[in-house]
């Protein structure tokens, strides 16, 4: 492997932060403090995660590995829930959706042999799945909120005609699922042309033959399509009900 | 004696600490043709929405066929006590999307013949079925919206100023349609209106002022 980075070269890379700081001060952007906080946090968080992952990879224990996957899912759910802008039970809904999306996709990958049940594979893959689910769910929530606001009167009309909650919301739910899946589908279209995704770049960086690296990337692309569709469908179908009261009226 | 079809007892509705309706005690018998009038902001629409179970009263009771409304499945209740909004909003893309909806929610196949004759009864030709909802005038929307409520006949029809966007001629058409529903099919009508002709054609008038009821005896 030609991985030549060392602490000295990292120190030189600090100069790059210096460039950002110079821009900020010259243009009076007032972001100097944020950059410093960002840099310090990035270093501390990454060092901590690096040690933690190193330890877990060495330990190679099923329970610890699964526990870490659960922590990842928990964090992703928490962040997706924060994006819900007041949808009740958003954390619970996100957790169920991300847990299902991650487990299902992971099981398929493990059964197919594409991913081995070792921490150094299961954990990064789970992270990718969970974070993409989190982003998809966040988009679904944003879409649900926007559509229930825009189309409030239409929904009310449907309810008044005797529609049940699903009948009154189905066009909004479908729209929200579509919006959650769309970024992944769009990025699948331009992959390799516009962006060299992280997984593939990482493998090539580590000296893996590009033809081998793309196999992983193809797997990741398929995996993310499955993941974002599961997560979007589950979150949207659970979340729309939260827009109604017990007596099947639209909230607020 | 038969129990009244609908009965409200001391209904009160409050939003953000503001009282919008209070002490509404109202009995509606089967076959009634009741008009509700009153100044703008007096709570007429709010009262209809409560009767339609689109809003829940803060205080008081609403009974339908001698049973509290909360004991009915809202979707069933709203099919029987059907509310037609003051500002008609259509959904979907075409008029047809709106007219198939009542069939869809009942899992029944769309009856195009019936829909066309309903359109005709409010003065809209069959070319309207495929028209885009964005291409309709306010009065046309109002009439399409009204048809949605009566493709499957409700027991009670709650009409919220449904002729406000219509010209004299179409007002007359809608009025006689509603009167027929009441007289020939026995549909109970509760009609919010400012129109003197409509007020005169009813058999009971309730006047709302500042959320309170005045019923002339
Ligand atoms: N959701 C709500 N939040 C706050 N205030 C409301 C709400 N709904 C109605 N109101 C207020 O309640 C009062 C009665 O409203 P309502 O729509 O019932 O009046 P209305 O008699 O139908 O008037 P109009 O003849 O203009 O249609 C109004 O002052 C209105 O601003
Ligand atoms: Mg009104």
Automatic annotation (TrEMBL), chain A:
It holds the Pfam family UPF0014. The chain crosses the membrane at residues 6-24, 36-56, 62-81, 93-117, 188-208, 214-240. It is found in: Membrane. Keywords: Membrane, Transmembrane, Transmembrane helix. InterPro entries: UPF0014_fam. It is a multi-pass membrane protein. Belongs to the UPF0014 family. PANTHER family: PROTEIN ALUMINUM SENSITIVE 3, UPF0014 INNER MEMBRANE PROTEIN YBBM-RELATED. This is Iron export ABC transporter permease subunit FetB.
TrEMBL record, chain B:
Residues 6-217 form the ABC transporter domain. Keywords: ATP-binding, Cell inner membrane, Cell membrane, Membrane, Nucleotide-binding, Phosphate transport, Translocase, Transport. One of its GO terms (molecular function) is ATP binding. Pfam families: ABC_tran. This is ATP-binding cassette domain-containing protein. It comes from Carnobacterium inhibens. The lineage of its organism: Bacteria, Bacillati, Bacillota, Bacilli, Lactobacillales.
């Amino acid at each position: 492997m030609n991985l030549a980075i060392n602490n000295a070269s990292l120190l030189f890379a600090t100069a790059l932060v210096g460039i950002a700081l110079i821009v900020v001060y010259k243009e009076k952007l007032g972001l100097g403090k944020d950059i410093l906080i960002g840099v310090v946090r990035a270093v501390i968080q990454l060092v901590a995660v690096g040690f933690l992952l190193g330890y877990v990879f060495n330990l190679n224990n099923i329970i610890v590995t699964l526990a870490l996957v659960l922590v990842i899912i928990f964090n992703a759910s928490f962040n997706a829930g924060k994006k819900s802008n007041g949808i009740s039970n958003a954390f619970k809904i996100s957790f169920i959706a991300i847990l299902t999306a991650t487990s299902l996709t992971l099981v398929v990958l493990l059964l197919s042999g594409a991913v081995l049940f070792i921490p150094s594979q299961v954990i990064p893959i789970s992270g990718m799945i969970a974070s993409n689910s989190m982003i998809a769910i966040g988009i679904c929530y944003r879409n649900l909120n926007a559509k229930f606001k825009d189309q409030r009167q239409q929904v009310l009309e449907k309810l008044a005609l005797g529609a049940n909650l699903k009948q009154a919301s189905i066009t909004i739910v479908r729209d929200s699922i579509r919006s959650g899946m769309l970024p992944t589908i769009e990025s699948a279209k331009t992959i390799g042309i516009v962006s060299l995704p992280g997984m593939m770049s990482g493998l090539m960086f580590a000296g893996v033959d590009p033809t081998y690296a793309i196999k992983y990337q193809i797997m990741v692309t398929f995996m993310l399509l499955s993941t974002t569709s599961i997560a979007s469908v589950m979150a949207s179908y659970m979340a729309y009900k939260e827009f109604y009261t017990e007596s099947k009226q639209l909230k607020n | 004696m038969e129990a009244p079809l609908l009965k409200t007892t001391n209904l009160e509705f409050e939003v953000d600490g503001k009282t919008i309706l209070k002490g509404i005690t109202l009995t509606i018998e089967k076959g009634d043709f009741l008009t509700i009038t009153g100044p703008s902001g007096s709570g007429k629409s709010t009262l209809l929405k409560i009767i339609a179970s689109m809003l829940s009263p803060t205080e008081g009771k609403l009974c339908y066929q001698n049973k509290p409304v909360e004991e009915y499945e809202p979707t069933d209740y709203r099919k029987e006590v059907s509310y037609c909004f003051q500002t008609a909003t259509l959904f979907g893309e075409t008029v047809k999307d709106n007219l198939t909806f009542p069939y869809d929610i009942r899992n029944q196949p769309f009856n195009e013949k019936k829909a066309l004759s309903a359109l005709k009864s409010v003065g809209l030709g069959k070319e309207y079925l495929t028209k885009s909802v964005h291409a309709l005038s306010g009065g046309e929307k109002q009439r399409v919206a009204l048809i949605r409520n009566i493709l499957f006949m409700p027991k009670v029809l709650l009409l919220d100023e449904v002729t406000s966007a219509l010209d004299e001629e179409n007002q007359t058409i809608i009025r006689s349609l509603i009167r027929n529903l009441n007289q020939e099919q026995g549909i109970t009508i509760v009609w919010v209106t400012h129109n003197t002709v409509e007020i005169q054609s009813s058999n009971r008038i309730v006047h709302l002022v500042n959320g309170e009821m005045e019923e002339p005896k």
